[in-house]
Amino acid sequence: MAQLGSQNSKLLEVLRAAGHILPGNFLKAWFFLNLISKPRKLVRRSLHTFYRIELVYDVLREARSSYSGKFAVLEFGTAAGYAFTKMLYATRYLGLEDRVEVHAFDSFEGLPAPQDGVDDGLTTMDWAEGQFKGDYEDLVAYCDRRYRNHRIHRGYFEDSLTPDRLEVFREQLPILVWIDCDYYSSTKKVFDSILPYLPNGCVIYFDDYEFNYGSRLTCEARFVHEFNHGLHGNDKELVLDRDLSLDSRRVYRFVRADEDAIRYPLLAERRRPMTARRRGNDSPLP
To answer: Residue 138's domain spans which residues?
Structure first.
C-alpha cells in the first residue's frame, strides 16, 4: 500500500507530465534537479533545520512560563565564549537575569589529548590537543562589563566540578546543560559529576552529537547510547525531544524514575488538576 501511495503522489504526476512534455534527457534532468529537487530541499531545510541559539530561547521561555524558583544554564566547553554570551543576552532579553545564572566550564587551554579508543574521530573529524583554546581573561572582562548573572569556572572538568560548586545546583536547578566538549571521555566526566543534580525534564544539548554521522560508536552519540543502555542504571534515560531537535538528534530530556528524582517547582497556575473534557458534538470537529 505504501508503494501504491507513493506511485500515485501529486509530485509523481507532475514529474510524469514533465517527462512527456520536455524533450531530451538533458533537459528533463535539468528540470528535475533545478526546479524540483533544489527548491524542495531549500524549503525543507528552511523550515526544519535545527539552530542551536533558537534552542536557548525556547528553553528559557519554558522555564519562565512553567516553573518557579531560580535556575542555572551549564555550558561545558566554552572556548572563546560565542554561545556563552548569547545565552547571557537571552536571559536579559527575556527578563530572567535575576532568576537564571549562566555557568561556563572550560580549561581555556584547548582540548586535552584524546583518549585512545574512545575519542577517535573515525570519519568526519579528528581532534588534536590544544584545539579550541580560549582567552579566559578576555572573556571574563567582556562578561563583567555587560552581565551580572554569569560564573566562569576555569579548569579541566575533573578539577572545576568540585562538590561545593555542584551544591549550588541544589538551589539553582539546571534547565539547560550544553555539552560542547567534543570527546566521549569528557562528556562522561561531566555526567558522572552532574547527574545527581539534574531534574526531570532538564534539557541536554549535545553540540557534537552528529560528528561521524551520529554513530553510536564515537563521541557524544556513544555516550547517549551507553547512557540509555544502563551506564548509570536502568532507571535513567535521555529522551530525544523532537520538537526542540527538529531535523537533528542533538536535544534530549533527562528522565529518572528512582526515589532521588528531582522535579521543577511548577507555577501556581500550572498546579490545577486536569479535568475530563465535556462532550460537545459527535462530529470530527472539536
So the answer is: 52-266
In this prediction, residue 214 carries a pLDDT of 82
Output the DSSP codes for the chain.
-HHHHHHT-HHHHHHHHHHHHS-SHHHHHHHIIIIIIHHHHHHHHHHH---HHHHHHHHHHHHHHHB-SEEEEEEE--TT-HHHHHHHHHHHHTT-TTTEEEEEEE-SS-PPPPPTTTS--TTS----TTTT---HHHHHHHHHHH-SSEEEEES-HHHHS-HHHHHGGGTEEEEEEEE----HHHHHHHHHHHGGGPBTT-EEEETTTTGGGG-TTSHHHHHHHHHTTTTT-TTEEEEE-HHHHTTSS-EEEEEE-STT-B-PPBPGGG-SPP-PPPP--SSS--
Please indicate, yes or no, if residue 11 is contained in any of the structural domains.
Answer: no
CA distance 85 to 144: 11
Record the pTM.
Answer: 0.85
Question: Which DSSP state fits 104?
Answer: E
Q: Are 254 and 204 in contact (CB under 8 A)?
A: yes
User: So what's the pLDDT on residue 124?
Assistant: 58
Residue 107 lies in a domain: yes
Instruction: Tell me if 12 is assigned to some domain.
Output: no
**Rounded to whole angstroms, how far apart are CA atoms 238 and 234?**
11
Helix (H, G, I), strand (E, B) or coil at 212: helix
pLDDT tens digits along 72-109: 999 999 999 999 999 999 999 999 999 999 999 999 98
Determine the pLDDT at residue 65.
Answer: 96
Query: For residue 132, what is the domain's CATH number?
Result: 3.40.50.150
Ranges of residues in the chain whose predicted pLDDT is under 50: 1-5
The count of structural domains within the chain is 1
Asked if residue 237 belongs to a domain, the reply is: yes
Q: What angle do CA 205, 154, 260 make, to 5 degrees?
A: 50
